[in-house]
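tool_call predict_complex ligand=iron/sulfur cluster
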Amino acid sequence: MSSRCYNNKTCGGLQNVVDISSQRPLELDITYVCDMACLQCNRALGLIGSHEMMTIDQVSRVLHESASMQRPYLEIRVLGGEPTLHPHLSGIVDTLDWYRRQVGNCSVSLWTHGHGEQVKQEIGKLPAWIRIRVSAKQPKVVGEGFDAFLAAPLDYQESHAQDYWNGCGQIAPGRCGIGVSPYGVYSCPCAAAIDRIVGLDIGLTSLTDACDERFRKQCDQLCRYCGHFLVDRGVQVSTETVSDTWQVLRDRYRTHRPRLVRY
Ligand code: SF4
Ligand code: SF4
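tool_result ok
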């Protein structure tokens, strides 16, 4: 753990990340394609849809990096977007199979909305060692079951001065994992999704570079856009909200989509 002293009195976010990193799952957002467009999707896919996706080589690379570590990641989650819509899912499954044989004692799950013929067919082709987690989201869902992800804390006076450095309770042990996107490794998958839109291009270029200090720097720059941060601090915001900053980001993305370096 870094020797820096952190003020962590307001949330259960990043604590001893280096020590616990192999206890957090590794979450691979293999594609940002999704046909649901839930408004408060915490990959922002309802507001700013995308066809960006990880290649098989990128998935293979991050899994090789994990396998090379003294304590490889023991839980791999395959997400998106809708992961079954990745055109090379079978190749990704082969890579995951290699990993679980290599590491042993490792769980692999795929998280899907479970809707539509194509999705159901792809689920039916998956091997039994992949645990299927069905969220059963409904098309164009606005409110129930979602936080107001599109409420950027920097648009709210009560949270503007808060310390983003610690992240939020979403990344506490037992909750979401370390995020991997086409653009690198992040403190959480929401941070990865925010960066694809904000365009800071601060994904780590190797899983082996992951450490407390680097994840905190990502949080410091990206959590200010994330509505989970407000929820974590008890700020009530309607789930129909698209705050000013997110409206600006949406408009800017339409004309000047950020170009990030691929992982
Ligand atoms: S189904 Fe999931 S990934 Fe797709 S838009 Fe809704 S919340 Fe996002
Ligand atoms: S990006 Fe959002 S979910 Fe991730 S640590 Fe920051 S506030 Fe929490």
